[in-house]
Design goal:
By secondary structure, the protein is of the alpha/beta class. It has one domain: Response regulator (Rossmann fold). It has five helices and five strands; from the N terminus they run βαβαβαβαβα. The chain has a five-stranded parallel beta sheet, sandwiched between helices. Helix 1 packs across helix 5 and helix 2 runs parallel beside helix 3. The radius of gyration is 14 Å and the shape is globular.
């Protein structure tokens, strides 16, 4: 069982990054957040975590779908296709509420789909709820990718 959350936040909106981190860090000191802004950076971070001991492998990914160049679904596909990462829960977080994208995310094994709140305080509260659930309620497996 994991004691700490190692979160990979894949988000390109600077305001959302700040607010999500604020909510996450306010909820627990047992959380480390790495932020990348593109699918390519996310894949590079995961590959590096598999190869380099100093780089921690996340045990939770928060993924925006609307990213520059590629859809976040490409990163979701990568995570779920790699044995070293397929057990990492992926929370899809997006501001566009599209029924087809919800179905596609779950078909590609997203752990959940969350519509980003438009209200700033609700975004902070939502990030606190994510940490509260994944750190205090859910039991995550140890990361054995090293």
């Amino acid at each position: 069982m994991a004691k700490n959350l190692e979160i990979l936040l894949v988000e390109d909106n600077q305001t959302d990054i700040i607010l999500l981190k604020k909510g996450i860090e306010a909820e627990s000191m047992e959380v480390n957040i790495e932020v990348v802004e593109t699918v390519e950076e996310g894949i590079d971070h995961l590959r590096k975590s598999k190869e380099v001991r100093e780089t921690s492998t996340p045990n939770l990914i928060i993924l925006d779908l609307n990213l520059p160049k590629d859809s976040g679904l490409k990163l979701l596909e990568y995570v779920k296709a790699e044995n070293a990462f397929k057990t990492i829960p992926v929370i899809v977080l997006t501001s566009s509420f599209d029924e087809s994208r919800i179905h596609e995310s779950y078909r590609k094994y997203a752990s959940c789909f969350i519509n980003k709140p438009e209200n700033l305080s609700e975004l902070i509260n939502m990030s606190k709820s994510i940490v509260d659930f994944w750190l205090k309620v859910a039991i995550l497996p140890k990361n054995n990718s090293k």
